[in-house]
Amino acid sequence: MRKVSLITALVFAAISTNVIAADGKITFNGEIVKQSCTVEGGNKDKTVTLPKVSAVSLKEAGNVTGTTPFTIELSNCNASETITDVGLSFVGPNIDLNTKTLKTEGIGATTAKNVNIALYNQDDNLIKLGLDKDDQNVQYAKIASDKAQLNYFARYYALGQAEPGLVETNVDFEIIYK
Predict the structure, then answer these.
(1) Average pLDDT over residues 85-103
(2) Is 65 exposed, middle or buried, given 0-12, 13-18 or 19+ CB atoms closer than 10 A?
(3) Of the residues 22, 73, 146, 148, which has the maximum number of CB atoms within 10 A of its CB?
(4) Contacts of 82 (CB under 8 A, 6+ apart)
(5) pLDDT band at 12; cut points 50, 70, 90
(6) Rounded CA gap, 100 and 30, in Å?
(7) How far apart are CA 128 and CA 176, in angstroms?
(8) Can you give the chain as a three-state secondary structure string?
(9) Averaged pLDDT, 47-72
(10) Which phi and psi angles does 4 have, rounded to 5°?
(11) Where does the record locate the signal sequence feature (predicted)?
């Protein structure tokens, strides 16, 4: 029985090598880096509270208000010759792919209507959520003394005439290196 299995395996191997014809080749490249920045304590699960604003200030799609700065601090970032900067890429299921903002649906009967949350980098450019990290408008910070500070802004973003209510959403982030 064992000889039959071995013979069968050899026959299939011989047949399969003769049948495969290569029309091209794909080469995969990558790099594993030593960096492993750590998100500082309270920055790992951070809550950013935007101010109370009037629905009147969000009466047309694209209106923004309630600018709220926030910071994510990283530590244990060992800069090297190839890695000197660090940033965050934002991901998650709450992203509105049409507006590149965060959906605020699903917190009950008191949910505000027609309002999302938009994120901006420290240069006040919209972070385009839902895109690849290279296309999001990610901003990088220099690693200094094994630390980095990443500054952002959050704003209410109108999808149309806003209706009063509570706003809540969340987004995950991943540390990226440059």
Answers:
(1) 94
(2) middle
(3) 148
(4) 31, 33
(5) low
(6) 28
(7) 16
(8) CHHHHHHHHHHHHHHHHHHCCCCCCCCCCCCCCCCCCEECHHHCCCCCCCCCCCHHHHCCCCCEEEEEEEEEEEECCCCCCCCCEEEEEEECCCEECCCCEECCCCCCCCECEEEEEEEEECCCCECCCCCCHHHCCCCCEECECCEEEEEEEEEEEEEEEEECCECCCCCEEEEEEC
(9) 95
(10) -65, -45
(11) 1-21
Q: Locate tokens 């700065």: which residue?
A: 69
Task: Identify residue 131 by its one-letter amino acid code.
Answer: L
Token pair in block for residue 63: 């209106």
Average pLDDT, stretch 173-178? 90
Residues 176, 78: Cα–Cα separation, whole Å: 13
Q: CA geometry: angle at 153 spanning 147 and 129, to 5°? A: 95
pLDDT score, position 83: 83
Tokens of 75: 């530590």
First to last CA, the chain: 57
What gap in Å lies between CA 153 and CA 123, rounded to an integer? 9
Structure tokens at 25: 């080749």
**Which structure tokens are listed for 47?**
């809550």
